[in-house]
Amino acid sequence: MAKAAQKRLKPAEQARLAELFDRFEAQESNPSTELDYDSPYTLVVAVALSAQATDVSVNKATARLFQVANTPQAMLALGEDGLKPFISSIGLYNTKAKNVIAAARIILEEHGGEVPLDRAKLQALPGVGRKTASVVLNELGIEPAIAVDTHVFRVSHRLGLAFGKTPDQVEAELMAIVPQPYLTRAHHWLILHGRYVCVARRPKCEECTVSDLCPSRHLFIGGQSG
After folding, report:
1. Which of 12, 18, 22, 142 is deepest in the core (most CB within 10 A)?
2. What would the DSSP string read from start to end of 48-74?
């Protein structure tokens, strides 16, 4: 996906967006992933494991796993059969184990044991798609990116930030309108807002600090569910 140019917005919408992200910043000025990691390698592994799984379940698994294998060398030595018991509580663990071990081998053989912090090379690793690469690059401050998961997709539509029908479309829309000072943090704010406030079935509009800026508020106020 080509780098999105900032979209020209009407002054009223520019003001709404600035206020929206100002309030998110006031709540949490330096948000980060809720996945536990201590290196680019453990971050890549944790994010890859988090597909269709909760951060809580991944952190529970990696707390034990990373004590045993927190480098590509140690992971490769562990092997698929050794890795599976650590991640068996996570969905799709057989496929994820295969991908993690294959990625460790490539990192060792092609990148000297260091995670390549380049989008094309990252996405070439087994089990690392665009969303995983975006999370890693944004979290490490390499490249501003907005990884669109189910929370970001839902919140973006409810807040009238994006209208695309696919994650890639929503990503492009968000990258074009989020004010530059907030671009590296928007991903985290939208995830956290969707995870804890703007939840799928019954959004907590009464607790929402941006509800007066939300065009979907009227759909949920008064006891209706989403």
Report:
1. 142
2. HHTTTS-HHHHHHHHHHHHHH--SHHH
165 is annotated as an active-site residue: no
**Domain 40-139 class?**
mainly alpha
Residue of 131, 165, 168, 212 with catalytic role: 131
Cβ atoms within 10 A of the Cβ of 24, count? 21
Domain spans of the chain, in order of start: 11-31+145-220, 40-139
User: Does the global pTM surpass 0.85?
Assistant: yes
Residue 131 annotated among the catalytic residues of the structure? yes
How many Cβ atoms sit within 10 Å of the Cβ of residue 178? 25
Per-residue pLDDT reduced to its tens digit, 103-129 = 999 999 999 999 999 999 999 999 999
Question: Could you tell me which CATH number the domain at 11-31+145-220 has?
Answer: 1.10.1670.10
Instruction: Please return the burial class of 127, using the count of CB atoms within 10 Å of its CB with bins 0-12, 13-18 and 19+.
Output: buried
Query: Rounded to 5, what percent of the chain is helix, strand, coil?
Result: 60, 0, 40
